[in-house]
Amino acid sequence: MKINIGILGLQGAIIEHQKMLEKIKDVKVYIVKRKEDLDKIQGLILPGGESTTIGKLIKDFNLKDPLIDKIKNGMIVWGTCAGMILLAKKISNDSKVHLGVMDIIVKRNAYGSQLNSFSTNIVIPEVSNKAIPVVFIRAPYIEKIGKNVEALYKINDKIVAAKQDNMIVTSFHPELTNDISFHKYFVKEIKRKIR
Ligand code: GLN
Question: Which of the listed residues 50, 107, 136, 160 should we mutate to test ligand 1's pocket, taking the one with most ligand atoms within 8 A of CB?
Fold first, then answer.
């Protein structure tokens, strides 16, 4: 069965996610810019980029309410970096709330100015039992999670990957590496959900 996966195509690391998904069998990729595009897909990636910009474009493209609706109705969504910020119900160092659907409080640019970017290898048992390379770029972390949220990985006590029902978030960017494990996990989650 073909799985249709969308990537929100307004700003940020869109092509990078597309290239990863195209390596996985049975996946067809849609770049989502209009609300009609949301009806074709079973899962959606909110890419990294600049959350303030993407948040503004979501409104300008009349996608805010349709996105909230689809996610609340169970569409599987994965927010990477800025995508995590878009999903969060609160940003501790910013007054904005974008989609506000996930019960997490995040801190933007949480790794400060000296350490804006770094990469490391981590084992996330939920995803794979092999270590996967991950890249952090002016990344957020999660300061607080609600009771329905599961922390999938912590670095120095800070949550950098989490899951709540149909929503997955990562502070880091697996799409900027050569390892497709996280994308495979996302596809597997969609298949499990729609089976
Ligand atoms: N610092 C960005 C923001 O706050 C996120 C960075 C990223 O997505 N790589 O939106």
Answer: 50
Q: For domain 3-194, give the CATH number.
A: 3.40.50.880
Nearest CA-CA partner of 32 in 70, 50, 72, 5: 5
**Domain residue limits, the chain:** 3-194
pLDDT, tens digit (0-9, with 9 covering 90-100), for 36-94 = 999 999 999 999 999 999 999 999 999 999 999 999 999 999 999 999 999 999 999 99
Closest Cα to atom 5 of ligand 1: 82
User: What pTM was estimated for this model as a whole?
Assistant: 0.97
Catalytic residues: 81, 173, 175
